[in-house]
Amino acid sequence: MTLNDTIKEMTQRYAAALNTAGAVGVGDFFDDDADLLPPGPDNLKGRAAIQAFWTAATEVFGEPRLTTTDVAEIAPGCAREIGTYAARVKATGAAVGGKYVFIWRKIDGKWKIWTDIWTSHQGQT
How far is it, in rounded angstroms, from Cα 46 to Cα 49? Predict the structure, then answer.
């Protein structure tokens, strides 16, 4: 399997986890010292904080979809993914979307998200 195929598959598994109630298992996709850089002033560090963030976010947003548009190896065992996301606000059904960048690194033979940053097309988080 190519690096591109591997990262795309991991991203689809991640999106599936985001689609579960409470985003169960989402934290497992992240490295222990991962950084989550959502829009706004606050950044989060570490798997537990990231899991808590996504658990709360799935109370507000649903039907998340991630589409990988580019994958590049940036060093051995390290890859950069660029893509787009879309979701719906549960209360209103309004669509939200934007773009993201994941930095993946391979740890003990498993790909983990090391950095996750995104921006909205409409100014939403």
Answer: 6
**DSSP assignment of the chain:** --HHHHHHHHHHHHHHHHTSGGGTTGGGGEEEEEEEE-SSS--EESHHHHHHHHHHHHHHEEEEEEEEEEEEEEETTEEEEEEEEEEEETTT--EEEEEEEEEEEEETTEEEEEEEEEEESSS--
Q: State the Cα–Cα distance between residues 120 and 36, nearest whole angstrom.
A: 15
Distance CA 56, CA 105 (A): 26
- Confidence (pLDDT) at 121: 83
Average pLDDT of the chain? 95
Q: In this structure, are residues 70 and 57 in contact, taking their beta carbons and an 8 Å threshold?
A: no
Q: In the prediction, which pLDDT does 123 show?
A: 59
| Amino acid making up residue 61 | F
Confidence class for position 35, pLDDT limits 50, 70, 90: very high
**Pairing label, strands 110-120, 44-45:** unpaired
Residue that has been written with the tokens 């983990």 in this structure: 112
